Amino acid sequence: MRPPVRRAGPALAMIGVASGICADEVAEPAVALSAVYTADLLRNTSGGLKTGNAYLDNLDMTLSIDGERAFGLPGLTLFAYGLYTNDARFSEVYPGDVMTASNIDAPEALRLYEAWAQWGFGPHDSSLRFGLYDLNSEFDVSAARGVFINSSFGVGHELAQTGLNGPSIFPITSLALRLAIQPTPQWTVLAAVLDGVPGDRNEPTRTGIHLDADEGVLGIAEVAWSGTKLRKLAAGAWRYSEPFERIDETESAGTAFSYGAYALTEFELWTDPRSDAREIAAFFRVGIASDAVNEYDRSTQAGIIFHQPFSNAEEETFGVAISTARVGRSYRHSQEETGVQLSERETAIELTYRRRITDWLLVQPDIQYILNPSADRTLKHALVLGLRFEFLTERSW
CB 4: neighbour CB atoms within 10 A? Predict the structure, then answer.
């Protein structure tokens, strides 16, 4: 069985600063420093590969510098992001799922995760960014999906599985050039070109920049519209410039290109007339990938979240969501030729509750039921129980 693919990590408390968006422009500091320590206590209670427990932790450290306030250079933003993960792998040892039950599940490493410079221009926060860059910090993102712990709610599995060393997402990123154009406050057009092979495949704990014409690039673009009731509507497409070996060796051609597309929406279902903070929102996402070189050719995510369901706590969310990844025809046929019978898809159902306890602590109990882990017919459905703690601190001046 192949180990789970890499996924996008958890959202940072400073994500607004990282993406160049600040809720209060007047109060934005010249320098902002943040640290988030995330810990997951996870137990696979039944099914999967075997039952057992794991303790996963993740430390995110970010530094953002406003060039105008710090150096008198209007439009300039500098950003650095350090990342530590421990080596307590969970999905590949216990439930055996490919979509990865925890979005901080990664090999042990202390690395520079992002380091970029951004120049802003135009009347609506258009910008050009260059450096080490997490694709999932801006592409394929919706706020409601970020509540959930399963990694497939960060980046759809059809995209996360791709490439020789994954795309530029958690926990390894690559050099990128990203352009964001906002012709109006509601419309955003994103486009990026990224090194096709992030990091060093021979040294997975290193952050390495190795540009090679043979490795090619990953190109991705997204068009998004945002509003009030309809929070976000977006569509994106991606393609690698270099071909990959085909999965199905019976095909006449030996190589094929890896490409795909996705669409997502997030919208308001209900808002309490007595409090705008108390609301119900929903999301839906679907993605496709070429099945000639990718094991899974489609993934779908949908869910509902309820803000402040039981109290008026500043940050309290209850949510339920489902995510599926469908096995591609080429991969299914190639496995059948070796005598392996696969299920059509892996499915994860997640029930979660997230609440801020203090200014520096959030707690999140979580339940996941994983059907057909790795689409392996020999594995029983897995039940995963989890408890997440997030410790946050930030300073600015």
Answer: 26
Contacts of 370 (CB under 8 A, 6+ apart): 47, 48, 95, 97, 99, 101, 346, 347, 348, 349, 381, 382, 383, 384
List the domains of the chain with CATH numbers: 15-396 (2.40.160.180)
Provide the residue count of the chain.
397
Burial class (CB in 10 A: 0-12, 13-18, 19+), 24: exposed
User: By C-alpha distance, which of 334, 349, 300 is closest to 158?
Assistant: 300
The SS3 of residue 17 is: helix
Place of tokens 């993934």: 299
Q: Which of 227, 331, 339 is nearest to 289 (CA)?
A: 331
CA 287/CA 167 separation, integer angstroms:
15
Q: Please tell me the predicted confidence (pLDDT) of residue 211.
A: 78
pLDDT digits (tens, 9 = 90+) for 104-120: 999 999 999 999 999 99
- Are 224 and 187 a contacting pair, CB within 8 Å? yes
Q: Which amino acid is at 197?
A: V
pTM: 0.92
- In whole angstroms, what is the distance from residue 236 CA to residue 139 CA? 8
